[in-house]
Specification:
Two copies of one chain form a homodimer. With about 300 residues, chain A is an alpha/beta fold. The first copy, chain A, has a domain of about 210 residues: Rossmann fold. Chain A contains ten helices and ten strands. Chain A has a six-stranded parallel beta sheet, sandwiched between helices. In chain A, strands 6-8 form a two-stranded parallel ribbon. In chain A, strands 7-10 form a two-stranded antiparallel sheet. In chain A, helix 2 crosses helix 3, helix 3 runs parallel beside helix 4 and helix 7 packs across helix 10. Chain A starts with a strand and ends with a helix. Chains A and B meet through helix 3 and helix 4 of A and helix 3 and helix 4 of B.
Chain lengths: ~300, ~300
């Protein structure tokens, strides 16, 4: 039995759907159903359900976006830094292997040597480097509190997307924002993320931290071009194209920060090779975006 | 009615004793009695007790010392960063004025210009500066989460001491440690701290942050000399002197860190003048130490 925490979140709901589709016994719990942030409640839940593996997909991301975390600091700190440590304590007390959905947003740009960030690189977008959003600070602190955790995966998700229109979907965001920021990013196809992370457990790959992004990186304008390409394809086939025709870009990061954002955003390129090295494949990023757009569900 | 959170702690217990002595109606609550870390419980407690003022003396300091906070990171982060924000949320929801016992340990040394740290100086011993103990990091983060809080005092305590032998008492520590670290510090006589902070409320001085240390600063060796002076005085009067005769010092901070400490300590000098400027007096530090030693209770 697999226990999923954060049942109603964007990632947690996907986990539940995935496990259901594969007919793997699971229980997905929301905080509204049971306050698992209390250690004693979580330990009791684990004792009651006896999971062979636990997935922590709960976290605080801010609505409508990460700027909200600058206001709801208590919830952000509790959800992203304290709570992972609570799950760790509960899993260690009950000897339960588990995985934590972390984030690549603890990095900015590329490494100093120009290469993508590897799992062991120290976060450069965190409280410690004093340049990050409050959200990124708490996610990095959350990983710190998992240092030395045994029987634990830390899976770094980055800007989830897939073929389903949703305010949390990166593609939806690009289509809805009036103006876009040009930036280079590694990103994660959400369904592939869920599959790849669960594969970590099924294949019993070594515990530890994994960047779970689709291989490669894209500029915002690359994604926009893929959207335009799909619109053209559909028109050529005489089909309706539900995507916008025009996209506007901020002139600079400075203009973006001045006009649109309250807190710095993480844009970063991550190294996917550790996951590949343990035999888990994800689709190259451009292909994954094309597929999502081709199968778009409004 | 005054509501005190953290009734069984070193500071909270002093608050209860102080208010009791003055026959001011109060209720001092421990977490064991009621889990006030849950926002809904705390709001209910405030609604039930209708305090005119609330004191948060709860926090996580680590036993036997701050090194323990490097192990109990979850408790440290929850107690010192999340919990003050929970108290803030509860006090704002119920329109209750309150005071938070913070710490001067978010600073190290003196300001770059050689002067003591003022209330508005940015902490230089925190997660943000990436040089601190985990404890100090969480205390500084706790203050961040109180930014913009109205009807709130932030009182910075520094190395409490008084005339009562206690493992938390700075004087007890100096007498018990086999080897001492020479360092310059501002420190707080605990009874005076309690009195001065409560005076903030009684005198309705402006809300905000106050360094609540005895005026001045002392080197460790100054305090040792005061202990020796008191021993001599007692011997001259034919009295027993309960203090050690010999004190050893580490050769350097490097030696101290190598041999005795797992995490960096805050040693710092704080500016007391804001508290004085609102008409609240504390005894000059050397005099306060002399008085504590003269009235020592084992």
């Amino acid at each position: 039995m697999i226990l999923v925490l954060g049942a109603t979140g964007y990632v947690g709901a996907k986990y539940a759907a995935y496990l259901g589709r594969r007919e793997i016994p699971f229980r997905a719990v929301s905080r509204a159903e049971l306050d698992y942030t209390r250690l004693e409640n979580l330990i009791q839940l684990i004792k009651d359900t006896q999971p062979e593996f636990l997935v922590n997909a709960a976290g605080y991301t801010g609505k409508p976006n990460v700027d909200a975390c600058e206001i709801y600091k208590r919830e952000t700190l509790e959800g992203n830094a304290v709570f992972p440590a609570t799950v760790r304590a509960a899993c260690e007390a009950t000897d339960t292997p588990w995985g934590h959905v972390s984030s690549g947003c603890i990095y900015s740009g590329r490494r100093d040597d120009g290469l993508p960030f590897k799992e062991e690189d120290t976060p450069n977008f965190s409280f410690r480097t004093n340049n990050s959003s409050f959200y990124s600070g708490t996610k990095a602190l959350g990983e710190e509190l998992l240092e030395g955790a045994e029987n634990c995966y830390i899976w770094r998700l980055r800007i989830p997307f897939n073929n389903e229109n949703n305010p949390r979907n990166y593609l939806t965001k690009l289509m809805k924002y009036s103006t876009l920021l040009e930036a280079e990013n590694s990103i994660s196809q959400l369904d592939e993320f869920v599959e790849a992370t669960f594969e970590c457990w099924e294949k019993k790959v070594p515990f530890g931290t994994y960047n779970v992004t689709n291989p490669g990186a894209v500029m915002t304008s690359d994604v926009v071009n893929l959207i335009k390409e799909e619109t053209d394809r559909r028109k050529n086939e005489g089909l309706d194209a539900p995507f916008p025709d025009e996209f506007n870009f901020f002139e600079s990061l400075e203009q973006f920060m001045e006009i649109a954002a309250k807190t710095p955003r993480s844009n970063c390129v991550m190294d996917h090779s550790k996951l590949t090295s343990v035999g888990i494949q994800m689709t190259p990023v451009e292909e994954a975006i094309r597929t999502a757009l081709r199968n778009w569900v409004d």
